[in-house]
């Protein structure tokens, strides 16, 4: 498996190919007898310009991995790079700036500001950072996401799918090196969910973005280029060009600790299909 076999001293060498990397990434919560090892010496390479999905049973470490790669949480041991910047060891203020300038986030709850219209929500992170939006790029994002005629609407005047599209546009607007999406379809009906997945796909294929998505849904993961499977804080497998059926089958294997039981600890189901 390429992640496990990856070189162990990546330095700056792979920064062109990889948007993020981790070596020996370990995260422990608590101490003494109550210690939880959420990540256990994870090696991972996130390829630029690709759509990577992270799957695994509840509690397997998906969110922790995303948070550590995105500099939202600090590692207990190991190293993390964003491009050629090692983020392990950065101070809080430096991490805040790095997240603001180089990473886009999409969460299950869209986190839109209710008093601002769609256009204002989309450029809010840049406005806060005092950055001048690249209007041509922002226009391209808005048109790609089909939001042109919704820009003056406030979140309450938009459907769930439209709100998630605004959240998607906000994540893309500053043209970040890497977009992290945590269950981006979790609150949506299957049609709106499919739309959002289609837009993330377009962000990668047409806008050249890099996306990492945490999901429980094999149907959602099927939109990615590569699925990483986590179990007990380790990457235990990966799958290129996934289909929903193949992902579901693989999940059943891991969830059952090798037993092929469909109802074990995974709380996702086959969800929406392509
Ligand atoms: N702040 C915390 N304090 C203590 N333990 C934590 C904390 N955050 C996560 N954990 C533990 O770390 C492990 C991994 O959690 P994590 O949230 O990364 O899993 P997950 O795969 O994202 O789960 P889910 O699919 O349920 O969201 C779990 O055992 C969890 O209980």
Automatic annotation (TrEMBL):
UniProt domain ABC transporter: residue ranges: 20-257
GO MF, one annotated term: ATP binding
Pfam families assigned: ABC_tran
Keyword set includes Transmembrane: no
Keywords: ATP-binding, Nucleotide-binding, Transport
Gene Ontology CC annotation, any one: membrane protein complex
InterPro entries according to UniProt: AAA+_ATPase (IPR003593), ABC_transporter-like_ATP-bd (IPR003439), ABC_transpr_LolD-like (IPR015854), MacB-like_ATP-bd (IPR017911), P-loop_NTPase (IPR027417)
Domain of life: Bacteria
Protein name per the record: ABC transporter
Organism encoding this protein: Streptomyces colonosanans
